[in-house]
Design goal:
Length: 230
């Protein structure tokens, strides 16, 4: 199966929030193309629209105006079910605060996205353990999140993002809660995923982390003000 080289094409994309009588242009006309196997760092000050952009790319939110193409198809106005389907099957998401469910084991957390996807997976446990192996956490499969360090939790969250074999991983400040040693480990892990053919877009405040990326996008007031290749 060959896939189109262009993953996303955003044209004049806008997302406006209405709060009381005020309008916030969180994204104010963004043009962006994401190609296969790119590693993009999204930087910019707090409130510049980075998370809003990630939520749109992750099909967790819909735009107010503009156009959004995913793998050559117009997805600007797809319905909630189609959105959920793409989110579950094509994209992995990693958050700053890990977002693991505290009562579930490491393995059950990793398997959770399979519950939401429409296709039934027969060999779930094997897939879950394989994902944990990719991040070096298979020996902790029976632990609960509270029994892990921050760096270990983030590795489990990355295994969860990998379970549906996504083409693209979106990470919103994935190293924001980690010390420098764990930051380095997580970045090495992302670099190895890139080598396996996954495309990455990650938001970061950290110049060292941004240094791993081949392309850097700076946001300001809902706009892309810089887009440079390393
Ligand atoms: N759910 C929301 N409702 C209203 N305003 C929001 C919401 N989410 C974000 N905003 C506003 O949109 C702007 C961009 O936010 P965000 O994308 O979270 O920025 P960043 O991730 O770069 O810090 C900010 O001014 C923020 O206050
Ligand atoms: Mg943010």
């Amino acid at each position: 199966m060959t896939e189109p080289d262009t993953i996303f094409k955003l044209s004049d994309l806008r997302r406006t929030y209405t709060v009381g009588s005020e309008q916030v242009n969180a994204l104010d006309g963004v043009d962006l193309t994401i190609e296969d196997r790119e590693f993009i760092a999204v930087i910019g000050s707090s409130g510049s629209g980075k998370s809003t952009l990630m939520h749109l790319l992750g099909f967790m939110d819909s735009p107010t105006a503009g156009r959004m193409e995913f793998e050559g198809k117009d997805v600007t106005r797809i319905n909630g079910a189609a959105r959920a389907d793409l989110r579950a099957s094509r994209i992995g998401f990693v958050f700053q605060s890990f977002n693991l469910l505290p009562r579930l084991s490491v393995l059950d957390n990793v398997l959770l996205p399979l519950t939401y996807s429409r296709s039934r997976v027969a060999n779930q446990l094997e897939l879950g353990m394989a994902a944990l192996e990719r991040v070096g956490m298979e020996h902790r499969y029976a632990h609960t999140p509270s029994q892990l360090s921050g760096g270990e939790r983030q590795r489990v969250a990355i295994a969860r993002a990998l379970i549906n074999q996504p083409r693209l991983i979106l990470a919103d400040e994935p190293t924001g809660n980690l010390d420098s040693k764990n930051r380095g480990r997580i970045m090495e892990l992302f670099a190895s995923l890139l080598e396996e053919g996954i495309t990455l877009a990650l938001v970061t405040h950290d110049h060292e982390v941004a240094g791993y990326a081949g392309r850097r996008i700076r946001m300001q007031d809902g706009k892309i003000v810089e887009d440079s290749k390393a």
